[in-house]
Amino acid sequence: MKKLILVLALLASPAAAQELKVEDVCQKVAKDLLMIETLHVGVVQSFPELKPPRARMTYSSRDGVEKKDMVDTIECEFGATKPPFKLSRFCLSSTCYSADEKNEENKARFEEVRTLLEREGL
Q: Which residues form the signal peptide (predicted)?
C-alpha cells in the first residue's frame, strides 16, 4: 500500500510532468480538441531535437482499431521540449490551427486547446 501511495505521489508531482515528451502533449492536444478521454495511438514520429520541436501520430478514437488501420493523423509543433511546451501549431488531418490562423474558427479552437494546456502547466 505504501508503494502505491508513493507511485501516485510521484505521478502527481511536477517532476512527473517534466518527464512528458512532445508526443505525449500532442496526444493531449488531440484529446482536448476532440473532447475525448481515450485516444488509441498508432504510429508515432517525434522530433524534439528539431526547431521547432514537433511530433505526429496516427490515431483512432474508436476501440478495436488496429494500429495499421489508423489513418487519422495529428501533427503538433511546440516552442519548447519541457513544460511549458508552448504549443505553437497543430494540424488534424489537413486542417491546421495556430494563433496566426486566418480562419477565425480554427484560430479560436487553437486558443481553446492552448488554454487547456496552459491550465495544466503544459
A: 1-17
